[in-house]
Amino acid sequence: MDALSGLEPWQMAYLGLCVLGAAWVRGYSGFGFSALVIAAAALVTDPVPLVATLVMCEIVLSAGQARGVIARVDWRRMGWMLAGAAVVMPFSFALIARMGEDVARMAVSAIVLVACLAMARGLRINRTLGPPGDVVAGMASGFANGAASGGLPIAVYLAAQPVAAAAFRATLIAYLTLVCLIALPSLWWTGLLSVQSLWLLALMIPVMALGLWIGGRRFSAADPQDFRRLTLMLLIALAGVGLARSLWGML
Q1: Which of 11, 106, 169, 212 could anchor a disulfide with 27, C-beta 3.0 to 4.6 Å?
Q2: Which residue in 247, 37, 236, 36 sits closest to 121, CA to CA?
Q3: Which sequence spans correspond to the domains of the chain?
Q4: Each residue of 167-181: pLDDT tens digit?
Q5: pTM score > 0.70 for this model?
Q6: By C-alpha distance, which of 229, 245, 21, 242 is closest to 150?
Q7: How many CB atoms sit inside 10 A of residue 162's CB?
């Protein structure tokens, strides 16, 4: 629990509220949990030791949502996206180490922000893209995963197409789960995954469960148009947070 050592009680409470809010977002939209927690944690502590815990959190959150999403997953599309990510991920960490995490995150956030602003002005793809588009989106996600932003390219890609809200959310949840499972051995090998990571996960589970339950209820009552609108706003917010964090780190 090195990431929490030396924190004041108010800082611990702040992080707890951030985890609750991020879990609510995950329960509603199917993505955004890790990006929000990392951005919030960076204000009070070094977020790097949290990375392995957050990967496990994504898996736990997905397990909590599995019952309601498995039947709605577009498995064929997800398979092509995962194939693209698997090709790139072994090289993404080395590439980002050379580029610098802040530069990589800034590039990913800027692309996401431009795409979202274009969609907000009415740009849409009127048909569902096939396997070539899915593979390219997965490759972009595999690269972005090295900067803890792997879900954003996939969310933008799906949001730009006529994909039903339930399929959007379910496919994204399933995709993030498998990407995180693939990442676990690398995290263990690099030393980021430790016993402390497991203890921190245990502390976060009750808070995550509450946020996930509230967010899931909100999604069940959401209108598809409201879901798309809120998802776009969330993506713009996450891209803005990513840009701000990158600029802060480079100063």
Answers
A1: 212
A2: 236
A3: 2-250
A4: 888 998 899 888 888
A5: yes
A6: 242
A7: 9
